[in-house]
Write a structure and sequence with these properties.
single chain; alpha+beta; 4-stranded antiparallel beta sheet; 3 helices
Length: 164
């Protein structure tokens, strides 16, 4: 989505419904039986349920913003916020991740992956050779905005698939 603010070119938040459902499922599947089967669950039980919920909730959404000078992305309520100057972007390419890449934050041998849902992503190579993949349900829009704001090339139409 384009913004009326001149300093913001693009912003999109993808919700990780599977992660959100898993957090809620753990809560329901953990709390309901405990309340039915145990007269009074101990503090340890509640600490475990709380820790799982608090630990997973920041990863229930991923927001990506492109301003006139930076690419910014973060999970949930600005958790694990990253900023990359647009001037450091050398290449932008729409890609498709392997299911083995998973969700959340992953460091592979030669790249960082940030993803909350699905397999579509935009791969960015920086001037210092780093590779970053940002998962999104709007890969074409994000890749187009990044190419336009950085004047970089890349695979304009195709989708490179990762097999490993």
């Amino acid at each position: 989505m384009m913004s009326d603010d001149m300093n913001e070119e693009y912003e999109h938040t993808q919700v990780g419904y599977v992660i959100l459902g898993a957090v809620l499922g753990v809560g329901v599947l953990g709390v309901v039986p405990a309340l039915v089967l145990v007269e009074s669950p101990g503090i340890g039980f509640w600490l475990i349920i709380g820790a799982v919920s608090v630990g997973a909730l920041p990863f229930c959404s991923l927001t990506v913003r492109v301003t006139e000078d930076a690419l910014i992305w973060y999970f949930g309520p600005r958790f694990w916020r990253n900023t990359l100057p647009l001037s450091s972007i050398e290449r932008v390419e729409r890609v498709r991740n392997s299911p083995l890449h998973g969700w959340g934050i992953r460091m592979l041998v030669d790249e960082w992956i940030y993803n909350v849902s699905g397999l579509d992503a935009v791969e960015i190579e920086t001037s210092d050779g780093n590779v970053i993949r940002i998962g999104t349900d709007e890969p074409d829009q994000l890749a187009t905005v990044l190419r336009e704001t950085t004047q970089t090339g890349g695979d304009q139409k195709g989708v490179r698939r990762t097999l490993n």
